[in-house]
Amino acid sequence: MDTADSSAPIKVSRLGKRYANGAGVTDVSMTVRPGAVTGLIGVNGAGKSTTLRSLMGLVRPDAGEIHLFGRPASEPARNRIGFLPEERGLAPRDRARSVIAFHGRMKGLDRRAAYASADRLLERVGLGARRTARICELSKGNAQRVQILCTLVHQPDLLILDEPLSGLDPVAQSEILALFAEFRAAGGSILLSTHSMAAVESICDHVVMLSAGVTVFEGDLAEAADQAPHGAIVVTSDPAALRAVAERLGGSAAPLSAGLGEAVRWRVLLPAHVPHPALLRALSERSIPVMAFEPIQKNLEGAFWTLARAATDNRAA
Q1: 77 near 70, Cβ under 8 Å?
Q2: What is the pLDDT at residue 314?
Q3: Which residue of 67, 238, 256, 262 pairs with 11 in a disulfide if CB–CB is 3.0 to 4.6 A?
Q4: What SS3 class is residue 124?
């Protein structure tokens, strides 16, 4: 792994790519720093997969710039990347060892080096005894392990991973996360695309948030969590009274979408100096029925929804 290149492994500026159905991205910018694990988060349809496909040259952007390792994106630069796409694509009759080695040879390894690397990685995740097993003979979790090993076989400088923990049980997740930690310790960088806020909080130190094809935040994890609002989620049968109480305390209340048959939840935002018990006490003093009350956590999820909503409001204005 060549760690001499200190340029940012990924730098994206004002990326745009629209499809005929209107989906895609309109303004994505981000930087993946050397040696960092960067989380790319957003709901389904936010533009994460389009961004990754653009990075890997699988789609041609309509606008913007992509630099890899300090230079305009090119095939030699992409050969330094291990890529796990959203669509898993292992042939069911292929053998684990052979498919990993095949990916290594596509990235420039000779046959002997590719098979040696495949064997080492399979041993590392406890699949050495299954190296000649066909993919269709493996459990879903083990097949996913093999897919991830395909990204590591050529000792890349950068990993780009789309939902790498999907389908893995907690033990398998821990093993794969340990592999990623080893990769990072050796100087590698990781871009991890996911809609799991918990996964980002557990392994990332930098985060990029997408909403409706636009970057709404980029920064360190702690900085992102600080964007979370202060308030609570409340379910009540008297929303007018709830709004009045929130406004009297200097805050606001707005409905959140609810599923079919569910009670409407209200998002109550409060000034920083107003504690949650003050809201509960004010509701109780006015005999306002409260079926549920959940303080908004100062975490990544709270921050994401706040920033995504603000971006939506700005676009509508």
Answers
A1: no
A2: 63
A3: 67
A4: helix
